Structure to design on (1044 residues):
């Protein structure tokens, strides 16, 4: 992905897309090793004059936890986390995610770290944003080999959360919880619908005319570069240097 | 009541072969020196419960063939990549894996802490995590209607093994914000602690310190292990040894490399 | 996120008539100044949940006719004798009493803290405490066999009202060992705090202080109330006013005496 | 009760009786405002060279709690409290205790504070010692008006604790859990079996010859007065002065 206008970096575009998905929320929690979602959350906070409250789980400075490892999950169970991010070694067309293994679970070909908190948070966080930069038939599959967390449930199952969108390096999908299907919302500059279809192994809905993903506005870019980047540097120094530092020195 | 031992090895005596051993996540203070001592002793058939995830500790114990069953939500070296011995053992089928999700392990230990046979938990229904856990049961919420919910049986570990910054002579242990260490000690039959330092003043006599203190009442044995979490970090005390962890990831990529690592950093290091 | 109010009255705005209000036991820091402010405002029909017991606070609110339902395990003035207005209200049948037992109230709030619909608890079976609690249900342990066990529905208070020694400008509150105050705040929709002092330094920046800190994230409003637990004590800060409590016990023995107490120590005191 | 030998106080006799009931335990917890059980627990600890571990719930200095009000109950649920003390406005012959009210629960004649933790601790603490100095037909009744906690349960109910004895100012009863009946074990010096029968409104078993309660040995008295009393003074100064302080200055 190299075709965004020269003055907008891919990371900036993706962070802007995610910030718009976050929208008007009270509390966004971002998992470890997620610099782009972290950028988006901090951007949303700048745009909202301090709201939403942002927790960066990777960092001690940007979290308030004092009740041990259970507090994040208790907090979500209390309805106090509105937005969270999940990914997957595989993601399928029904919004199921796989963080466990490829092949037969009993004798897997590939083993991933594990499901972490996904089998709970996917159900109780109202807006879960799926983020996977690698957009390929290897990652976006018709059916995951292992369901760490399902995209939906029968109506009698208690669930007040789930996926709202899937953001990749090529496009933005929204997720229709009723139909349990993704819908192509926009294609990032420099990419095409045919390319998205070619590299996506699951079926998805799309309008006749798929718009191009909107570029960050000049104001948004300035906020990201001037206000967000310095905060980010505390938790993701390498990322902040690579994405924002260079430009600053330019 | 806790017994201070002069050697870490002696403190670890309660951990026998086949022990159901609960250990904390990387950010809560991992007893790595004690882990190396267990490997040197050659402990076997551990049922290792990592609350709720693990990194180097589980990978080392698995690679050294100390683990029969692993129960956790994830094992990874984080920024240093996948956990190579864990991945190899799973694909080779040499350990029994009980995949879980973080809040389920916290809840199952809280059930033991409260002396109840189970705890309910939302989520899980429709996941393969639940599908492969016959010990977790879906029931219709007895206080609701057409409301399926998962019940998790209490987990009562034989031993909880933790590392903390500070203890006092009475065996009280300062654990700070790492409250799951308290739940682990409450849930486990016995708790073994390694600490960086021991102070004379009783931690419970200072209301500010007391707030982050695990009472010695729950502690079986304590041994001093300076930099006892190395090469991992200890929150608020020291950070992880990135160079060493990168070297581990490199060496442990193959079984031979891992065995060289064991010889050099676990066995010889002690002899030296 | 917490709002610092200049008056205690303003901080108490979220507590409306009919509020399900949870308050702590005497040794955990009772917001007595706030309680007097609620009586002055004339709050009505409170569902007062005292976790797990109460003393002067419940007796005052009951005597002042602010309480419709009381849910707790015991009300007593301890060494100063029975709680006279509580006893009078029960024998006169002027409040609805939901008798409980301490661990049941802790567990029901932990259920709300964890976002589960119920918690199991041992004991209770065969007691009249259970007999008179139709909301508590006996089921056969789904993970056991012929093993009846009680399920307690989660309690989600509208407001938790607490008093603590110290807060910082970010609204973090130091609660020390009084961990049930954390559970109350997690379980309640909103939490109101009165504190003795406010400091500039952020409590979460100090690992030792952080261990005993309720994050401001959970706090709705904060007001300063020096000696805000008077005439009760605040653990590690000041002890109770024995002479005053003896006087209360004496005056509150009769309704007239209690009304004199209200006039003198609750209403006029403010005017002065 | 005034007839114990002049050199042994009633409180000393009762504490000695209770200390023998505590016997060889790991952890004894004593509730608020219980100076005689506290004396007994500290005496047992002196006799056991530091074992059992003693928690005096009234005092901050003599408890280790750092996990809030639930810790006592969680600790008991973990099987880490071996001995506890309960009392009752009424106690009946089946070992049921009443801490709630006299008369119809809906319209009581007398209201007591409430059940506290009894409806849980009575089931999970292996040795619960009932202690009520007032031994009268008003307190020891055929059937309690309200069961705060029952003396026993059907065999299928999970219960690993319950009453082992009832100590009053007149005598010591043991409790037979199988029969759910009290048995008169010994009558305190200066009291008689007929007096116990006269002042007890419930039926109880008794041997043909009821022994007199054994007096504290000289060693025990010395331990109590020299080693226990000073520790007690920290939590129960008035009691320690009245019972032990006077004698010391004598």
């Amino acid at each position: 992905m190299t075709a965004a206008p020269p003055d907008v970096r891919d990371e900036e575009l993706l962070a802007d897309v995610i910030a718009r998905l976050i929208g008007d929320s009270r509390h966004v929690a971002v998992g470890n090793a997620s610099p782009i979602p972290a950028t988006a959350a901090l951007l949303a906070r700048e745009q909202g004059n301090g709201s939403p409250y942002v927790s960066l789980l990777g960092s001690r400075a940007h979290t308030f936890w004092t009740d041990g490892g259970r507090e994040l999950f208790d907090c979500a169970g209390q309805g106090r986390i509105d937005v969270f991010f999940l990914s997957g070694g595989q993601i399928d067309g029904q919004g199921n995610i796989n963080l466990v293994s490829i092949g037969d679970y009993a004798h897997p070909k590939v083993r991933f770290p594990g499901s972490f908190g996904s089998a709970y948070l996917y159900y109780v966080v109202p807006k879960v944003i799926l983020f996977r930069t690698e957009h390929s038939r290897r990652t976006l599959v018709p059916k995951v080999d292992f369901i760490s967390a399902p995209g939906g449930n029968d109506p009698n199952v208690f669930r007040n959360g789930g996926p709202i969108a899937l953001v990749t390096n090529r496009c933005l999908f929204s997720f229709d919880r009723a139909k349990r299907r993704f819908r192509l919302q926009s294609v990032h500059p420099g990419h095409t619908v045919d390319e998205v279809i070619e590299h996506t192994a699951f079926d998805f809905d799309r309008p006749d005319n798929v718009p191009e993903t909107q570029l960050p506005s000049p104001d948004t870019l300035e906020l990201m570069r001037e206000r967000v980047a310095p905060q980010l540097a505390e938790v993701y120094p390498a990322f902040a240097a690579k994405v924002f530092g260079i430009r600053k020195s330019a | 009541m806790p017994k201070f031992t002069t050697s870490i090895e002696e403190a670890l005596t309660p951990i026998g072969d086949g022990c159901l051993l609960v250990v904390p996540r990387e950010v809560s203070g991992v007893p790595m020196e004690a882990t190396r001592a267990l490997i040197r002793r050659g402990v076997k058939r551990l049922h290792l419960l990592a609350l709720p995830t693990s990194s180097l500790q589980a990978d080392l114990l698995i690679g050294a063939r100390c683990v029969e069953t692993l129960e956790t939500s994830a094992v990874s070296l984080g920024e240093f990549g996948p956990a190579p011995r864990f991945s190899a053992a799973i694909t080779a089928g040499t350990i029994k894996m009980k995949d879980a999700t973080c809040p389920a392990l916290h809840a199952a230990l809280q059930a033991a802490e409260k002396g109840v046979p189970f705890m309910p938990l939302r989520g899980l229904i429709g996941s393969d995590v639940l599908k492969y856990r016959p010990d977790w049961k879906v029931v219709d919420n007895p206080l609701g209607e057409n409301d399926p919910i998962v019940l998790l049986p209490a987990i009562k570990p034989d031993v909880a093994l933790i590392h903390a910054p500070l203890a006092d002579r009475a065996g009280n242990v300062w654990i700070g914000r790492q409250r799951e260490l308290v739940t682990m000690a409450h849930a486990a039959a016995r708790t073994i602690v390694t600490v960086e330092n021991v102070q004379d003043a009783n931690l419970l006599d200072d209301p500010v310190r007391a707030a982050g203190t695990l009472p010695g009442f729950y502690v079986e044995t304590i041994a001093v292990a300076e930099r006892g979490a190395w090469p991992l970090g200890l929150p608020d005390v020291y950070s992880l040894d990135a160079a060493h962890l990168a070297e581990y990831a490199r060496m442990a990529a193959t079984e031979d490399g891992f065995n060289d690592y064991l010889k050099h950093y676990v066995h010889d290091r002690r002899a030296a």
Remarks:
- The radius of gyration of chain B is 19 Å.
- The CA atoms of residues 6 and 223 of chain B lie 6 Å apart.
